[in-house]
Amino acid sequence: MDTQQSSSSLVIDQTTVLSLLATVIILLAAYISSRRLLSPTIHLKLRILFIWHAFDALIHSILEGSFLYHCFFTYITLHTPGSTSDYPHPASRVASPRAIHFLSHSDRLYGSRHGDSFTARLWMEYAKADHRWGNADLTVVSLELLTVFVAGPLAIYVCELIRRRDESKLWFWASSLATAELYGGFMTFAPEWLSGNSNLDTSNFLYLWVYLVFFNTLWVGFPLWVLYEARKNIGIAFAKAEKGTKKDL
To answer: Which of 93, 94, 183, 232 has the fewest Cβ atoms within 10 angstroms?
Structure first.
């Protein structure tokens, strides 16, 4: 499908650098927490699993939590109430029998686009590649509510299970979270694929390969790896249980 090509040139400014640096700092925090909370003798696979879920929890809670904050509490008031840009998606406008407004406020425009804090500017930086993240897109907001309030805490719980080395529960919850992450990623981009990627800007390397491809495929590659490890470890557990049952017969 076609992707939107922006005529504006790439501008790497202080917000661009700080936004990328914020992600690196969060990854570093996840690594440091693994060094402080896990035994030095823990298997490398479990350490990587911990770092991923700690990183996942921090991204969901801090960065995506700030996105939700701006969607619900950052807005401008229109002088003339009417149609706003806060529709669920451009493809829905034609099919809808009436105008749809975020939180039923026809006189407001919500989202990071209308804020001036660091987190608002951070999301506006990402919105250069995917314009939906500058507004209160209903599909994105709905997914982020589950991501922030369910996936984030669940990732923390998985970290705690790794710390306790409780593999009897670890692989069930880790695979449940991984499945949810993959589903959320699909539902984030499926509306774009079905509408010709009308909100995506792939006109330069940074927007396409860093913001859209690299950052989003992290939440594809790692969940797939978690599901692979879960299937393997759950299979081993069932094989041991079956072997023990046969010995008792």
So the answer is: 94
